[in-house]
Amino acid sequence: MFGPQGPTLRELAVQALSSVEHGYDLLAPKFDHTPFRTPDGVLDAVAEALAPLGPFTDGLDLCCGTGAGTRVLTGLCRRSVTGVDFSAGMLDVARQRVRPADGPGIAWVRGDARALPFTAAFDLVVSFGAFGHFLPRELPGLFAQVGSVLRPGGRFAFPVFAPPRPAHPGFWLLLGFDTVMRARNALWRPPFVMYYRAFRLGTVLRELERAGLTVELGVLPGFGRRADGSPRARLVVARRPGERPARLQPAAGRVNS
């Protein structure tokens, strides 16, 4: 599927019936040839929006996968960049594919985002496409972990896209996927947690603030606006209290919770 270099249907089925960790170990060599990998256009837009808030010294790519977001950090951070993921297979691919000739040093760490093996060592944390692997009840602990590894004034940034409306085919595609995953997890062990519709912006903003972070919403303008004028893509930037931050372009329109 997804072209000659992508995984076969059988390989995807084996992955889906595995644990999240083992499933990604299996998928890792072909992950970048699937739609699950964050598109370069999104990565570039986030990098462009974050650049005026820097320069940054040390960055962390949370749930780094094959290192697409880690590569973004190498252009934003001056001293070091760290990618953390709990899949050894994904980290192996990242080591091979992210090898800048110069710039900050890169470290790869196998670890769980819910129990990060770091102190307050970073002034920028990013994450791309990983939040579907966390149940809503896990967000308080996850965001508390992120806050604990940020230096005072450090920022946690990630893109969020407006969910499709019921009139759009994507709405039913995502609903169908989540329904199948819930049925799978009710009938099969170990569970494979991946839900596209569970990460709701209103809930996320509340939990970030409860974790003691100050939140700003920016707009990623290259993705346009919906019929009601609200942006299709936003950048969430949550800051640990510290020095006064630079301002983002304010987001317009409603927040979808």
UniProtKB/TrEMBL annotation:
InterPro entries: Methyltransf_25 (IPR041698), Methyltransf_Superfamily (IPR050508), SAM-dependent_MTases_sf (IPR029063). GO terms for molecular function: demethylmenaquinone methyltransferase activity. Transmembrane segments: none annotated. It comes from the Bacteria. Gene3D superfamilies: Vaccinia Virus protein VP39. Residues 60-154 form the Methyltransferase domain. The keyword Nucleus does not apply. The keyword Methyltransferase applies. Keywords: Methyltransferase, Transferase. This is Demethylmenaquinone methyltransferase. It comes from Streptomyces cyanogenus.
